[in-house]
Amino acid sequence: EVQLVESGGGLVQPGGSLRLSCAASGFTFSSSAMGWVRQAPGKGLEWVSSTYSYMPIAYDADSVKGRFTISTDNTKNTVYLQMNSLKPEDTAVYYCKVRFNGVDYWGKGTLVTVSS
């Protein structure tokens, strides 16, 4: 059974940083595409960042480019999202998403609140 468990969310002041983690199990992590998607209060899903566990390539939404960095640790089956220079508009539930064998899997999300 595929499981994705996010952690690292919380309350942070504007300009601050957080690192989200997504611990994965139940599939071949080293052969997967993974990413982060967020949903702000009252809004739809917004893709944030994507990468591959087997290639050093990352794609970021324009809204987070230069501030967020996605990475993976294949030894820990974990994908990270380092978020710097956070803004109030980054407030959202952040979901980890993995595509394996053509199927998308989602975590339950972790809430990030950027507020003073």
Summarize the structure in words.
This protein is mainly β. It is 0% helix and 58% strand. Strands 2, 4, 5, 6, 9, 10 and 11 form a 7-stranded mixed beta sheet that branches. Strands 1-3-8-7 form a 4-stranded antiparallel beta sheet, with no helix packed on it. Strand 7 and strand 8 form a beta hairpin. The mean pLDDT is 95.
Anisotropy-based shape: globular
Number of strands: 11
What is the H/E string?
A: EEEEEEEEEEE
Largest sheet: 7 strands, mixed
Instruction: Kindly provide the radius of gyration, computed on alpha-carbon positions and rounded to a whole number of angstroms.
Output: 13 Å
Judged by helices, strands and strand pairing, the structural class is: mainly beta
Unreliable spans: none
The average pLDDT is: 95
Could you state the oligomeric state of the chains shown? single chain
**Percent range of helical residues:** under 10%
- First and last CA, distance: 40 Å
Count of alpha/pi helices: 0
Kindly estimate the percentage of residues that lie in beta strands according to DSSP.
over 45%
Summarize the model shown:
This protein is mostly beta strands. The chain has strands at residues 3-7, 10-12, 18-25, 33-39, 45-52, 55-60, 68-73, 78-83, 92-100, 103-106, 110-114.
Annotation keywords:
116 residues, mainly beta, seven-stranded mixed sheet, four-stranded antiparallel sheet, 11 strands
Topology:
Blueprint lengths: L2 E5 L2 E3 L5 E8 L7 E7 L5 E8 L2 E6 L7 E6 L4 E6 L8 E9 L2 E4 L3 E5 L2
